[in-house]
Design a protein that fits this description.
It is a single chain. This protein has about 230 residues and is α+β, with helices and mostly antiparallel strands. The protein folds into two domains: about 140 residues, Jelly Rolls (Sandwich), CATH 2.60.120; about 80 residues, Jelly Rolls, CATH 2.60.120.10. Helix content is about 45%, strand content about 25%. The strands form two sheets. Strands 1, 2, 3, 4 and 5 form a five-stranded antiparallel β-sheet that branches. A three-stranded antiparallel β-sheet has the order 6-8-7. The chain is globular, with a radius of gyration of 19 Å.
């Protein structure tokens, strides 16, 4: 059993819940459910009814789309204290993507009606959600722009820099654990062999070190400069 106080602290670290008084968050938690998922289970499928908003308490979650012929595009990889699944309850429409544990995840499932009610009663919570969604839209726009204008190496390098800065802000050398070539290929919409070739190229240049199911970014600033210059090296 998770301490309700820890659950409140986790929620307070997520933008929409930050300004909400603790007693109201405690009441929200009382109406929510703790869920444990393990691969190969699915949290929800694209097209499912949107009846809950989820908060990652432990583990990782992949949000993805899959075409009819089995091709997969990975939208996001979420870790502790991240929220997902909020779009459906907001517009009362089916899920636009699927979600699965990677490989396991403990979640807090907040009823969609309770989440929307919280936003209606607390303007600061609604503003926090709007800012969070705006940041996400900017990130997706950047990914689209990169896909149009950048080569595979630079797209991969920028993604590694983004992941390194998120994992260890301010550090030049960062270990990215549980990062596979398949995962990166899914996030970038590239073939796995393309990612493998570009990873080896970046390793030869001295910007990364490849390890089993992980990557060490050796020079975050240098890798960012390389991938922003557009220079062929």
């Amino acid at each position: 059993m998770i301490d309700p106080g820890k659950l409140v602290s986790t929620l307070k670290s997520i933008a929409p819940f930050t300004p909400v008084p603790d007693p109201i968050l405690t009441e929200l938690i009382a109406h929510s459910n703790l869920c444990a998922y393990r691969a190969p289970s699915i949290i929800f499928h694209q097209g499912d009814r949107s009846d809950a908003v989820y908060v990652v308490l432990k583990g990782r979650v992949q949000v993805f789309s899959e075409s009819s012929d089995g091709n997969l595009v990975l939208h996001r990889v979420l870790e502790q204290a991240h929220m997902f699944g909020e779009m459906g309850p907001l517009d009362q429409r089916p899920r636009i993507a699927s979600a699965r544990p990677a490989p396991q995840a403990d979640l807090l499932a907040i009823p969609g009606s309770k989440f929307v009610g919280l936003l209606e009663q607390h303007a600061h919570a609604a503003l926090g959600l709007a800012k969070m969604l705006a940041e996400r839209l900017r990130a997706h726009s950047q990914l689209f722009e990169d896909a149009v204008f950048l080569c595979a190496r630079d797209r991969l390098g920028r993604l590694l820099v983004e992941q390194a800065r998120a994992a260890a802000p301010g550090q030049l050398k960062v270990l990215l654990a549980d990062v596979t070539h398949d995962l990166l290929a899914g996030m970038l919409g590239l073939h796995r062999v393309t990612v493998t070739n570009q990873m080896r190229h970046l390793e030869r240049l001295g910007f990364i070190e490849l390890r089993r199911a992980s990557v060490v970014v050796l020079d975050t600033d240098g890798l960012e400069e390389l991938c922003s210059s557009g220079a062929s090296r």
